[in-house]
Amino acid sequence: MKIFETHAHLNFKDFNKDREQLLKKCKASGIEYVINIGVDEKTSKNSIDLAKKYDFIYATVGYHPHDAKKFDEKIIRELAKHKKVVAIGEIGLDYYRNLSPKEIQIQVFKKQLEIALDLNLPVVIHDREAHEDCFDILNKYKIKKVVFHCFSGDEIFAEKVIDKGWFISFTGIITYKNSIMENIVRIVPENKFFVETDSPYLSPVPFRGKRNSPLNLRYIIEKISEVKQISPKKVADLSFNNAIDFFNIN
Questions:
Q1: What CA–CA distance (Å, rounded) separates 97 from 101?
Q2: What is the share, in percent, of the chain residues with pLDDT greater than 90?
């Protein structure tokens, strides 16, 4: 079973003690590709460094809404030109924590969408309690390749995203008791979803509360398999092929 990890933060300090060992296990377990995600200048640079070291890892660069106050357009434009950078992200809006002022979040989100358009790169979206603003801004900029990472909307919002031809990505949250994500899994088309861990966060059941890693993708795949009533291999293959096309992996 070939697996594509579409969203991880393997350069974070949580993996400092066993990163190399873990990545060997990932490769041996059938994880063919990993997209390692930047959230600010430092992590974007580190993500590229990790991608340069491992042929099966690719990088994204961008400023998370939490870090919008620190945004440097020149740095992201330059980093995004690296051959192993496959998307701008994670970018977007977060009205739950509001660690950067709303106005700055919106301004920085728009600037990074302009970079994505200029460089013809997909965008990886962080959207927390900001669904309509995220949607309206993306729609205004006519972004074609969009994935809502760790999708957190309801069925109505999911339908809006799907109707635009955008993608929805599922994390370990779908394994949690009483998660409404099962309904989203049911309605998402087979050609419009990815699987991800968001490592080191959001470990699936039975590892909830512990450090997450790409090795736990199989629990997400198995849950989608159960809900959609298709084989785990088919779920993995669908997500894999969707991600190969979305991130333009040759």
A1: 10
A2: 98
Would you list the domain boundaries of the chain? 3-246
- Model confidence over 175-218: pLDDT tens digits? 999 899 999 999 999 999 999 999 999 999 999 999 999 999 99
- The string of DSSP codes covering 130-152 is -HHHHHHHHHHHT-SSEEETT--
A 10 A CB-CB count for 3 gives 26
Instruction: Indicate the fold that domain 3-246 takes in CATH.
Output: TIM Barrel (3.20.20)
Q: In angstroms, what CA-CA distances link 97 with 114, 125, 129, 130, 220? A: 25, 16, 9, 11, 26
Distance CA 87, CA 157 (A): 23
In order of 50, 160, 168, 202, the CA distances from 188 in angstroms are 32, 11, 8, 21
Residue 223: which region, alpha, beta or left (left: phi > 0; alpha: psi -120 to 50)? alpha
DSSP labels for 75-112?
A: HHHHHTTSTTEEEEEEEEEETTT-SS-HHHHHHHHHHH
What pLDDT score was predicted for residue 113?
A: 98
Please state, in angstroms and as integers, the Cα–Cα distance from residue 219 to each residue in 2, 43, 78, 111, 205, following that order. 14, 27, 37, 36, 8
Alpha helices in the chain (DSSP H): 19-28, 41-53, 73-79, 102-119, 131-141, 155-163, 181-187, 217-228, 232-246
The torsion of the CA quartet 102, 91, 182, 158, rounded to 10 degrees, works out to 70
